């Protein structure tokens, strides 16, 4: 039981890291709070649902399609709203309200388009077998999703630490004005970050029917707070810290579900609250925020 | 003197409208909820408009007040009015316990308050606490049901709330609060006790939400945890305030009448279209009119109460 709890916590932890990393990337680069994050996850989930039920498309293929679609969408969204927002008096606070409005729009459109019913995908779409890890049996789909999440996180790290655009992205994260004066096109870097951030949320959404359960148009709100809990536990503005946050969240969720199931929905909020009050900069945070 | 006259007439017209409203249009529930949202919007206004702290989890105080008042009525058989005061006091205590949240700023505060409200919700609605709060099965106050009295109490609470906002709009206290919003360091150097002022605004808004929640529970008499901890309650109150413009008495009133009117017109039959209009409105407001409708009049030189 203990081994199973820990291992499933780690598998889910990887998935939750993938779910939250996009939010952290966007916050790190733009200092903007994407309250519609969960709604982009929801859109990814519905993409997987319709691709599977209409064309019997494997979620792994859907993932690739969705990734490129949302990069374009994110870039467009960036140029549509962010430059205007940055000229305002208090961009961080206004971004919170703006993305909240966007979240309402997406939810409303999703209800109009998909209806209010809960949907689910046949969970065998990602493999129906049982995988044994250290003597414990796990659903094959969990292991597939965790592996893909790990791969995605490694690719994001390679992007940030090896590629030229990624290094520029980190430069913008650590000091926006200096990066701009060093000749980095801040808008271009930020548009890519927005695109990649939304695309990562959407591919996490593609897998959500296998990890979180049935999907509906209003599922985004809870997922946004969960993602927030994860990146705040890790540390805001540090995408790699997200992995720590995801793992801690996954482990504590699995622990509660095994031993105190009726209290498990309290976990993300409780963790978020405790971390915010005790160490607002997150477990891996370097500087205090202006709190 | 002119200021007092203007604020007083706004206050009087609004209250009169709610007092005689049911004779104009007989949907009492609509008028009652209008008062609930207006009082909550003014509560948000006191905190967000005057100090810049936007509490997404404001509904937590509303739900706390509703549950506390109901429990005082059903378990301790107190008079509804005493129970409502108790609900307000309970929300005040919860606000005091949560006041460390004010150490956070901007988005962190908003998210933190949301987390706090969800924590209260998941605790109250937990099946494990069914013996105390009746878990997810809600409360039943039918034995105390009295729509006329609860309507009158709500009107009194609304009057007190509007009066408080009017006071803050024109007093030195309100000016000091706004100074802490614009620049906390300069305000502190000018001798304003920044932390104490913020906590005062926070507790005041918590008390209002608690009283309103208790009265709401009494009026509706049967409710579930997801009725009184519905995030949409926070959202409505925030959008009403943003639409009209914070740090004014009239802003949230205009926001409430326009948007709640719109809601009653199309929102009940087709909530998703209403949500869409809401979302578009919020995005447009942030991009083009971040200080609300009232800022248009201020630009023209009118002093909006």
UniProtKB/TrEMBL annotation, chain B:
Pfam families xref list: BPD_transp_2
GO cellular component, one term: plasma membrane
Chief location of this protein within or outside the cell: membrane
Organism encoding this protein: Ferroacidibacillus organovorans
Protein name (record): Amino acid ABC transporter
Coiled coil: none
UniProt keyword Transmembrane helix present: yes
Topology relative to the membrane: Multi-pass membrane protein
Keyword Membrane carried by entry: yes
Transmembrane segments: 56-74, 80-99, 144-168, 199-221, 233-263, 275-297
Location of this chain's protein in the cell: Cell membrane
GO molecular function, a single term: branched-chain amino acid transmembrane transporter activity
PANTHER family: HIGH-AFFINITY BRANCHED-CHAIN AMINO ACID TRANSPORT PROTEIN BRAE, HIGH-AFFINITY BRANCHED-CHAIN AMINO ACID TRANSPORT SYSTEM PERMEASE
């Amino acid at each position: 039981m203990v081994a199973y709890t820990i291992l499933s916590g780690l598998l889910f932890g990887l998935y939750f890291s993938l779910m939250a990393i996009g939010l952290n990337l966007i916050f790190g680069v733009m200092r903007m709070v994407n309250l519609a994050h969960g709604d982009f996850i929801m859109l990814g989930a519905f993409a997987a649902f319709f691709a599977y039920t209409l064309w019997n498309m494997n979620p792994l293929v859907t993932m690739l399609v969705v990734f490129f679609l949302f990069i374009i969408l994110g870039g467009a969204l960036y140029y549509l709203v962010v430059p205007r927002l940055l000229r305002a008096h208090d961009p961080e606070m206004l971004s919170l309200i703006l993305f909240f409005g966007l979240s309402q729009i997406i939810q409303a459109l999703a209800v109009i388009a998909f209806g209010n019913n809960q949907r689910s995908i046949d969970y065998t779409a990602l493999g129906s077998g049982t995988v044994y890890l250290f003597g414990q049996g796990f659903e094959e789909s969990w292991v597939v999703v965790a592996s893909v999440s790990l791969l995605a996180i490694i690719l994001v790290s390679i992007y940030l630490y090896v590629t030229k655009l990624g290094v520029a992205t980190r430069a913008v994260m650590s000091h926006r004005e200096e990066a701009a004066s060093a000749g980095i096109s801040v808008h271009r870097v930020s548009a890519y970050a927005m695109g990649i951030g939304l695309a990562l949320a959407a591919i996490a959404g593609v897998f959500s029917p296998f990890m979180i359960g049935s999907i509906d148009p209003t599922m985004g709100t809870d997922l946004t707070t969960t993602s927030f809990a994860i990146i705040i536990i890790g540390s805001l503005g540090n995408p790699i810290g997200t992995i720590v946050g995801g793992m801690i969240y996954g482990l504590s969720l699995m622990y509660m579900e095994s031993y105190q199931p009726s209290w498990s929905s309290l976990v993300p909020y409780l963790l978020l609250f405790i971390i915010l009050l005790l160490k607002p900069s997150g477990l891996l945070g370097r500087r205090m925020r202006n709190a | 003197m002119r200021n007092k006259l203007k604020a007083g007439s706004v206050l009087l017209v609004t209250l009169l409208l709610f007092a005689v409203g049911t004779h104009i249009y007989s949907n009492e529930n609509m008028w009652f909820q209008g008062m609930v949202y207006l009082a909550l919007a003014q509560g948000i206004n006191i905190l967000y408009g005057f100090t810049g702290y936007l509490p997404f989890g404001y509904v937590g105080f509303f739900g706390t007040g509703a549950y506390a008042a109901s429990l005082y009525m059903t378990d301790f058989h107190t008079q509804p009015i005493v129970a409502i005061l108790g609900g307000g006091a309970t929300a005040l205590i919860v606000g005091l316990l949560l006041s460390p949240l004010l150490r956070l700023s901007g988005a962190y505060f908003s998210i933190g308050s949301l987390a706090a409200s969800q924590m209260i919700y998941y605790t109250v609605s937990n099946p494990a606490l069914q013996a105390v709060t009746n878990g997810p099965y809600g409360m039943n106050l039918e034995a105390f049901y009295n729509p006329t009295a609860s309507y009158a109490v709500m009107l009194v609470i609304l009057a007190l709330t509007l009066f408080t906002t009017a006071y803050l709009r024109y007093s030195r206290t309100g000016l000091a609060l706004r100074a802490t919003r614009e620049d906390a360091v300069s305000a502190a150097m000018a001798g304003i006790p920044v932390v104490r002022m913020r906590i005062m605004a926070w507790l005041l808004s918590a008390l209002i939400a608690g009283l309103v929640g208790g009265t709401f529970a009494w009026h509706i008499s049967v409710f579930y945890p997801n009725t009184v901890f519905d995030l949409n309650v926070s959202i409505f109150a925030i959008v009403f305030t943003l639409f009209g413009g914070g740090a004014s008495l009239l802003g949230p009133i205009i926001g409430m009448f326009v948007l709640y009117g719109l809601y009653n017109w199309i929102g009940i039959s087709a909530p998703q279209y209403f949500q869409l209009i809401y979302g578009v409105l919020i995005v447009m407001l942030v991009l083009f009119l971040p200080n609300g409708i009232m800022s248009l009049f201020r630009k023209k030189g009118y002093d909006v109460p």
